[in-house]
């Protein structure tokens, strides 16, 4: 039997999505009709409404049916990943081609202006609807709603790793209710992090039914052979309990993973990390064009900030600090000065107030910050001079947080991978919480960026940066 959260996700969400699509398709058709009739330079506009009235029903039904055929109403597609968005775009394009062919074969005089505008308006609306629905689902799951009860089977280390990720990424909607012991672990009551064992992997089906689990996540070491896993699947054949296999690979973007079955064995292919690609000419050209354009657009704000800082106490407008860039090269990072002139000298007296759990220094109410410095930091205006660091080639628009030499001297081998690319004005660390993040999460996000870089990801981070800055999330 499915839990209430899983049942809602499997049944209610697709119905809500279908209703949302119905409304958006109707909006697109009405908008296209209105726009077509309002264009004075096209003939026959007065007849568009009559024809559209007669074909609206078939268009709506056909469009929604095509979306269904492309799997865009599957509950898992509504939760995460880009599958739903790609499905909406692909289904709409295929349906547009189908409508065009049908009108030609059956000699339907459909207005070309209406045809083009209906899909030009409708496709973005449908994608935006999916995005809004997904954000609503994620928000509900963070509040404990629409969640799946899951068991994790495997050795203790793998169980703890998966449970930690599920707790951290609560928007995924997986609540770990217990663990299944692997072979040879019969004496264990709980994992190192406290996940209780509620049964053995060999009795996975019976245990899942007893605790009303919606899914079993199979990690490394759960079963002694593929035969045992297959038998567990057979035992769950008539139950609504999903089997999810979690390979020992984390923090890898979907674009780098491909599953290719070979002789019945599903091999997971992981493409090499993209750190080197993040240093190629395409990213550099993007940085130069983007930074140059931003300097021009933001020049009034830059001048205003410089005047405010100078008039406050007469000290230097810019604060220059040595940071470590790509491949360990040092450079002078520029900022608008947001602290008192002797801020560096007063650092030692504040060491006891450090709120960071790692190598960073963070104080929420730092007494060294000046009055204008508070709003400069709140809206990240103090970071804008780094656009000139980007133009000089020291930094990138998007990248890991630029590190201090003292921090780098204490890096271990894993953390040192952050230095394989240029540091950025913004990055995953900033759009995911900024100063509110722990040191572990900051490193994890930076390493994820280095290993999974793509130009599309850079664009998405820049878009999310605007939202993070306006909301001043985690800024101090």
TrEMBL record:
Pfam families: Bac_transf, CoA_binding_3. It is a multi-pass membrane protein. InterPro entries: Bact_transf, EPS_sugar_tfrase. GO terms for molecular function: phosphotransferase activity, for other substituted phosphate groups. One of its GO terms (cellular component) is membrane. Keywords: Membrane, Transferase, Transmembrane, Transmembrane helix. Residues 283-470 form the Bacterial sugar transferase domain. It is found in: Membrane. The chain crosses the membrane at residues 12-35, 55-73, 85-107, 113-133, 288-309. Belongs to the bacterial sugar transferase family. This is Sugar transferase. It comes from Nocardioides mangrovicus. The lineage of its organism: Bacteria, Bacillati, Actinomycetota, Actinomycetes, Propionibacteriales.
């Amino acid at each position: 039997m499915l839990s209430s959260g899983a049942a809602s996700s499997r049944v209610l969400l697709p119905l809500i999505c279908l209703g949302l699509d119905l409304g958006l398709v109707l909006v697109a058709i009405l908008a296209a009709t209105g726009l077509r009739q309002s264009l004075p330079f096209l003939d026959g506009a007065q007849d568009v409404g009559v024809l559209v009235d007669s074909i609206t029903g078939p268009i709506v039904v056909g469009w929604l049916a095509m979306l269904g055929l492309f799997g865009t109403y599957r509950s898992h597609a509504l939760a995460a990943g880009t599958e739903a968005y790609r499905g909406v775009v692909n289904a709409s394009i295929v349906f547009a081609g189908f409508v065009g062919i049908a009108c030609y074969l059956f000699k339907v005089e459909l207005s070309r202006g209406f045809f083009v505008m209906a899909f030009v308006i409708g496709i973005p609306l449908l994608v935006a609807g999916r995005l809004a629905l997904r954000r609503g689902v994620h928000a509900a799951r963070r509040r404990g709603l629409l969640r799946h009860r899951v068991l994790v089977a495997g050795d203790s280390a793998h169980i703890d790793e998966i449970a930690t990720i599920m707790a951290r990424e609560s928007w995924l909607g997986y609540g770990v209710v217990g663990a299944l012991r692997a072979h040879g672990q019969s004496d264990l009551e709980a994992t190192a992090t406290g996940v209780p064992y509620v049964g053995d992997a060999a009795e996975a089906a019976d245990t899942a039914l007893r605790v009303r689990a919606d899914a079993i996540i199979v990690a490394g070491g759960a079963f002694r052979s593929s035969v045992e896993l297959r038998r567990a699947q057979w035992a769950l054949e008539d139950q609504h309990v999903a089997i999810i296999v979690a390979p020992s690979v984390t923090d890898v973007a979907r674009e780098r993973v491909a599953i290719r079955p070979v002789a019945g064995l599903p091999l997971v292919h992981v493409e090499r990390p993209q750190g080197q690609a993040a240093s190629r000419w395409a990213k550099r050209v993007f940085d130069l064009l983007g930074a140059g354009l931003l300097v021009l657009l933001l020049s009034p704000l830059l001048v205003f900030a410089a005047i405010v800082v100078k008039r406050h106490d007469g000290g230097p407008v810019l604060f220059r600090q040595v940071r470590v860039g790509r491949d360990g090269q040092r450079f002078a990072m520029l900022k608008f000065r947001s602290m008192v002139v002797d801020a560096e000298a007063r650092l030692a007296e504040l060491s006891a107030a450090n709120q960071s759990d790692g190598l960073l220094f963070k104080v929420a109410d730092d007494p060294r910050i000046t009055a204008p410095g508070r709003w400069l930091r709140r809206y990240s205006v103090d970071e804008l001079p780094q656009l000139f660091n980007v133009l000089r080639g020291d930094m990138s628009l998007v990248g890991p947080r630029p590190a201090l030499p003292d921090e780098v001297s204490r890096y271990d081998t894993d953390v040192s991978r952050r230095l394989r690319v240029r540091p950025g004005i913004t990055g995953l660390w900033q759009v995911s919480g900024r100063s509110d993040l722990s040191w572990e999460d900051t490193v994890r996000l930076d390493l994820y960026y280095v290993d999974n870089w793509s130009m599309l990801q850079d664009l998405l981070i820049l878009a999310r940066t605007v939202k993070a800055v306006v909301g001043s999330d985690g800024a101090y």
